[in-house]
Amino acid sequence: MAGSGKIKQSDLNQLVHHMSKKAFRAKDATVLDEKIMSHCLTLCGKDYKYSVLDNKNGELCNHYPPKLILLEYECRDSAGHHESIYNMQSLTDMFRKDRFARCRTRFVVPVILIEGKHICRSATISGSGELYGRLGLNLVFNGERSGSSTATSDEANNGDPGDMQALDRIRRQDIKLLKELRVNHICDLMLENKKVKYFLNVTSSEKVDKLNRYSDFSLWSLPYPGCEFFKVWRDRDYDADRIVFDWSQEFVNSELELPQESPHLHIPDICWKEYKTWSLIKLTQNYLNTILRHVQSGDSGLLVHCISGWDRTPLFISLVRLSLWADGLVHKSLSSLEILYFTVAYDWYQFGHDLPDRLQKGEEIMFFCFYFLKFIQSEEFIVHFPTASRSRNVSSTDLDMHYPMGVLLDADFPPFGSSSSLCSDQSMSSRSDAAPQLFMVESTEKDGTMTSCPSSSALNGSRPVSVPLRVADSGSGSSGKRSDSPSVGSWQVVTGTGSYVESVSPHSGADAHRRLSSSGEFSRHSASLSDLHHEPSPRRTRLEEVRSLFYHAYASTVGFKNGAEDSSTLLDMLTDKMVALGNKLA
């Protein structure tokens, strides 16, 4: 049964907290998992007619959603449509047969619909070892069950592990499904041509298929660092604009290559030969822009995959979804909170992203996804369709967050300080050019949704981000109890990425106040009233709202490593600054 669809900040907080404790597995789905799935169906139903592919108990794939949403068309285009455009029986059979063709049985699934074109996701294609191993296990376990279905029997006969032609038949089944979904382009994010473990090829990829079976497809090789590299990003102070991947590592043997027959992918301003010198920010920007240019000018669907399809793949799927939503092209009726809930729940959690494991290892690739939104707010990432009609005109009155007077905006600079000691004097002095910005953000829930009153700014930097620190209430006698409320507790000095620099409270001392004043951070970057009369672009405003909402949920549930104690009188400082600014202009 579908949920009410009224997503609240508490729902988002609950989702992020839940996924930080356990990775989703369909066969172990809880009552909360069912509620999350219900919310996703309701949110999709606001804009799209869809069909559902049942994956109950993980029968097709244990780390795919229990109900796979197959978008058909937008509700506004429903005239003349009375039945599903899919032959679900035939399509279900194709999905079932295709699962062995892909690593970890993570078969091709369409997840975004734009102008009649599907953007799909999956894992890479299986190597022969994995494929025959899974076929053998499938025969053993299904053979022990009484009353096996016809479909299951057909699967076994179609892929007898003793039959050396099974690999060819199953890969051709994969190709058949791609063509059924009208996908002609495949974007491969793997750093390797084949994934090797213990000296064995455990996966393959379309670009090195020995029989060249995927020659009918336009194959993009866009090698992108794996989730391990995002620990480097975190350990280097969340400074993605100053780190470059080491392409000389022995296992990296995939080179960037774009098909010549797709001229719309060759963006003139990008020198592709220099990709190994690009920072993590520039690399991600250029890859995302390439996908968006295909969405705008391509004539067919696109498949995006990495190795397993649960780290790099959701990064780009989520960024594409949010970018198109910010342009008013997909999920047109969803608010910032709703689209954020949907992409975190569906694109990340229910498609198997193992957040607990990534957090334990410091590989914060999901956090990077929403951090990165500040770098795609410019016009170069906008997708235009000449004949596209948007369901509504996005304006500054259509927002979800309050930004009251007293906001100081963060600028476009990298953060500073380490994840383990983000408030140290050494960090502040060594990166004095990257001063933090101070702000107060208050959000309230009304009728189940976030209410808002936007602030406008023409600064080149990003909008403020609400990130209350979870601290123990020293006066209550409770031992370390933390609060999730954005209206209580202490406030944080935050950099452009959301990195914590200083923990501050209206009741704390003035040590940090003196440090901030002596280094000049507070005075150098205070917003002047002249900055407040320009209206930011709708795209920038919407992406910043999503970023702000995610930061608040992440900080109040997962949290950041921060050894700071309560210090500084931020509220007093902020009030004094605004009073002084008002007197100056009076």
Short description:
It contains 17 helices and 13 strands. By secondary structure, it is α/β, with parallel strands linked by helices. The strands form five sheets. The chain has a five-stranded mixed β-sheet. A two-stranded antiparallel sheet has the order 1-2. Strands 6-7 form a two-stranded antiparallel ribbon.
What is this structure's SSE topology?
Elements: H1 9-21, H2 31-45, E1 48-54, E2 67-74, H3 88-98, E3 109-114, E4 117-122, H4 128-143, H5 150-158, H6 166-180, E5 183-188, E6 196-197, E7 200-201, E8 218-221, H7 229-235, H8 280-297, E9 301-305, H9 312-326, H10 336-349, H11 355-361, H12 365-371, H13 425-430, E10 445-446, E11 449-450, E12 491-494, E13 500-504, H14 511-519, H15 521-524, H16 538-557, H17 570-585
Parallel strand pairs: 4-9, 5-8, 5-9
Antiparallel strand pairs: 1-2, 3-4, 6-7, 10-11, 12-13
Helix pairs in contact: 1-10, 1-16, 2-10, 3-6, 9-10, 9-12, 10-16
